[in-house]
């Protein structure tokens, strides 16, 4: 009898404890939700494949995150995720389009998967210099591309410098298109890049950024092509011997945001986000211009052999790329091709 009474007593205590905890949780949960809602803080998550030390991430921290949080009086909180923590350019762009990620900083190339006309900035030898590139992208060319991307759910907040793309490889220095023959080169998933490297006799292999270092290390591919900043960022000087300044494409990064997210912001915050993004772009471009030579010197110091192309040697590459223009003219449309030819320098 005493044993039964003890069991009943224990069960009663357990039930009371369970009821108290459940009731407390039920009354506190709505209160917690109410507190989150009343705080009204907007969180902007920004994804990038660039490392913490890359000029893009430095600019986003100093000219975007810090002033935006301060000037919004805490109404906006910015979380920046470098080092491809949120995926590659393609994955992050898809997340922005769907609205599961507010912002990302991809290269232009992966965005060609959303609108093929974006490929135009990757057509070989469109720009001969940084100055010509930004004159074009800040003018009619950029405005036209922004319109294309807007129709796909993106708001473009600005263009940053990725840089002039050069070929690195483990086989030989590149001086002529013939030197590219038979070289297996990693490219981004961009039909324009793939077509160009096929045209000069290489074997292009699309591959994500995250897989590239290991692929070079294991000789799955012989070569890759990127600006000096990303050659350093990816530590490709550890697994590549030659860097040849082919300068075949001037590559941009761009800050994209989910269009509906931007449209849903209060007017003053939307304007503030746009201003801080513009400031970050201008700051990043300045730093990239100042640091390009130092990036090259880091490669040389690490043991890479870097060679430039003479104007005559570059003419041979330009001539070899002409069929690519003809190949894509019908696909991309007359409008964008005419704009490209106007800005070509």
Give a summary of the structure in a few sentences.
With 345 residues, the chain is an alpha/beta fold. It has 12 helices and 9 strands.
Tell me the span between the first and last alpha carbons: 99 Å
The counted number of beta strands is: 9
Shape: globular
**C-alpha-based Rg, rounded:** 26 Å
Structural class by SSE content: alpha/beta
Mean pLDDT across all residues, rounded? Answer: 89
Q: Which sequence of SSEs, written as H and E, runs from N to C? A: HEHEHEHHEEHEHEHEHHEHH
Low-confidence stretches: 1-38
> What is the number of helical segments per DSSP (H or I, 4+ residues)?
12
The largest pleated sheet is described as: 9 strands, mixed
Report helical residue fraction.
40-55%
> What percentage of amino acids are in beta strands?
15-25%
Question: What are its keywords?
Answer:
345 residues; 9 strands; disordered N terminus
Question: What do these coordinates show?
Answer:
The chain is an alpha/beta fold and 345 residues long. Strands 1, 2, 3, 4, 5, 6, 7, 8 and 9 form a nine-stranded mixed beta sheet that branches. α2 packs antiparallel against α10 (267-301) and α6 crosses α11 (311-332). The chain starts with a helix and ends with a helix. It has helices at residues 2-39, 55-71, 89-98, 130-137, 140-150, 191-199, 209-217, 228-233, 259-264, 267-301, 311-332, 334-343, and strands at 42-47, 76-81, 103-104, 154-169, 184-187, 203-206, 223-226, 242-258, 305-308. The radius of gyration is 26 Å and the shape is globular. Helix content is 52%, strand content 18%.
